[in-house]
Amino acid sequence: MFLSVRGRATVITIVVSGLILALVFVLVLLLARDALMNRTIDTAQRTTERVADDLLSGVPPARALVPRPGEAPLIQVVGPDGRLLAANRRAANRPVLGRSAIAHGELLVSGRSCRPAGARCVRYFGMRLRETRWGGDITVIAAEPVPLIGRFWPLPLAMAAMLVGLLALIGWWTWRTIGQAFVPVDRIRAGMAEFTIRGLSHRVPVPDTGGEIQDLAETVNRTLERLDEAMSRERRFISDASHDLRNPITGLRTRLELGLDEDDVDECRETIRAALRDTERLNDIVVDLLELSRLDSRAPVPVERVDLADLARREVARRPRGTPVATRLEPGVVVEANPVRLARVVGNLLGNAERHAESRIEVTVARDGDEAVLRVADDGAGVPADSRERIFERFARLADSRRRDPQGTGLGLPIAREIAEIYGGTLRLVDAPAAGPPGANFEMRLPLAGPSGD
Q: Per the database record, which ranges form the Histidine kinase domain (predicted)?
C-alpha cells in the first residue's frame, strides 16, 4: 500500500510536516520559556524595588514585607553577614537567597535557587540598601517561583501529543485527498482496460475537474482517436491494395492461360506483351507500397544540402518529350533532404501534370522568407475544391484521373506529401495565380537550409 504513489506521497507529507511542526513547537517552547523567565525576573525586581522604597520611606517592616497582588510571594531582608533579618511567611523557612553575592558585597544580586530539596525553584532579585531600621548595608530580596515549563514537562508533553494528533490528521487528509484525486485516474485506467472488449472506438471518461488529469484524459482520447483513424486507414489501405493488386494479377493469369492455348506465335507474343505490362504495373504498385512502408516507419535516410533548382532542372530534362515544360528556377534555393526522395516528389508532380495538362506545364522554384517553394502547375481541368484533400489519400483517384491513366496506382501524390512532411514541409493544392496556367497548381514548401559549415 505504501509503495504506491498515494502511500509514498502520504508518508513524505507526514515526514516533512512532522519536521516543520517539530521545529515550530521547539521554537514556541523556547520563546515561551524565555518569556516566562523574563516575566519572573521582572516581577521579582518590581517587588524588590517596592519593598526597598517602603523601607526607606519608614513603612513598618511587617507591612512592607507583605506582597501585594501581582508581586513576588517570597521576600527576605538579609544582613551584611548573610544572616536573615526578616522575611514574610512563605520566605521564612527558605535558606538565605543570594548569600554568596551578598558576602562579596555586590549591590545587585540575582539568580536561581532550588533549596531546600523538594521545594519549588525560584528566581530572585536583590538590592543593597545603606540606611534602614536595621542599620546600613542590608539587602532586600524578592523571589518568584520558576514557571512549571522551566522545571517539568507538562507543556512539552502536551505539545508532543498535539504534534502526533496533527500529523495523524495531516496523514488522513493527505491520503483521502490523493485518493479522491486519483479516482478519475482509476476511471481512466478502467476505461483503457476495456479496449480489448470494446475496441479502439471506445473512449475513456473525461472528468470535469480541470487541470492535468482532465488534460490527460483528453490527450488519451485524442491519441485513441488518431490510433483508431490510423487503424481504419490501415484497413482501407489493405483493402485498396488488395483490390489494386487483384486486377493486374487476374489479368496476368488470364493472359497466361490464353497464351497456353494459343497456337499462333504472333498472338502468343501479343499475349506475352500484355502480360508484361501487367507485370510492370504490379511492380509499380509494389514499389509504391514499399516506399509508403518506409515512409510510415520513418526509417532514417542520409540527408544532404540539395539545390532545389538544380534538382528540378534535372528532373525536367529526364522526362520524355511530350507536353512542353516552362521553368522559372531561382538559383541557390538550398534545402536539407534526401535527394532521391526529393527527386521522387518532383517526378510524381511532373507525372501528374503530364497526365492532366492540355498544352503546357510550368515549374517554379523560389524563396519565400525562410522557406523554399516548388510549384508545378498545368493548364488542365484542375481539381474541384471539395476534392483537393481527397487526392492526397492513398489509392484515391478521381474519375478524370482514372480515364486519363487507367493503370495508375493512386499513390504518387500521397507519397509526395509524406516526403515533404518528413522534412518539415508541406505539399498542397493551391489556387492558380492570375498570371499562371488555370489548372492544378501544386505547391511544396520546405525550410531553407542554414549556412554551409564549410
A: 240-450
Tell me, yes or no, whether 105 and 129 share the same domain.
Answer: yes
Cα–Cα distances in angstroms (integers) from residue 378 to residues 359, 364, 369, 435, 445, in the given order? 8, 12, 25, 12, 18
Q: State the DSSP code for 320.
A: P
Q: Is residue 186 in a domain?
A: no
Answer yes or no: do 357 and 421 share one domain.
Answer: yes
What are the strands of the beta sheet with 108-113, ordered from one edge?
84-87, 74-78, 138-145, 122-129, 108-113
pLDDT bracket for residue 241 (50, 70, 90): low
The tally of CA atoms less than 13 A away on the side-chain side of residue 220 is 23
Looking at the predicted structure, is the pLDDT value of residue 374 above 90? Answer: yes
Handedness of CA 378, 383, 385, 388 (dihedral sign): negative
Name, in order, each residue with C-beta under 8 angstroms of 107's C-beta and a sequence gap of 6 or more. Answer: 127, 128
Is residue 109 located within the same domain as residue 10? yes
Final residue belonging to a domain, choices 115, 134, 150: 150
In a domain, 179, yes or no: no
Spatial contact of 81 and 93, defined as CB atoms under 8 Å apart: no
Q: How far is the CA of 23 from the CAs of 30, 153, 171, in angstroms? A: 11, 17, 18
DSSP-derived letter for residue 68 is P
Counting residues of the chain whose pLDDT is more than 70, the rounded percentage is: 81
Let me know whether 345 and 237 are in one domain: no
Give domain status of residue 53, yes or no. yes
pLDDT digits (tens, 9 = 90+) for 146-204: 876 544 456 677 778 888 888 888 888 888 887 777 777 777 777 766 666 666 666 77
CATH number of 258's domain: 1.10.287.130
**pLDDT at 257 (0 to 100):** 74
Same domain, 221 and 322: no
Residue 124 structural domain: 5-150
Min mean pLDDT across 13-17, 334-338, 423-427 is at 13-17
Query: What CATH number does residue 99 fall under?
Result: 3.30.450.20
pLDDT tens-digit readout, 18-36? 888 888 888 887 887 788 7
In single-letter form, the type of residue at position 198 comes to: R
Strands annotated E in 80-137:
84-87, 108-113, 122-129
Is residue 418 within 8 Å of residue 297, measured between CB atoms? no
Do 122 and 16 share a domain, yes or no? Answer: yes
**Grid cell at residue 39:** 516575566
Of 296, 297, 287, 285, residue with least CA distance to 395: 285
Residues 333 and 371 in one domain: yes
Judgement on whether residues 275 and 228 belong to the same structural domain of the protein: yes
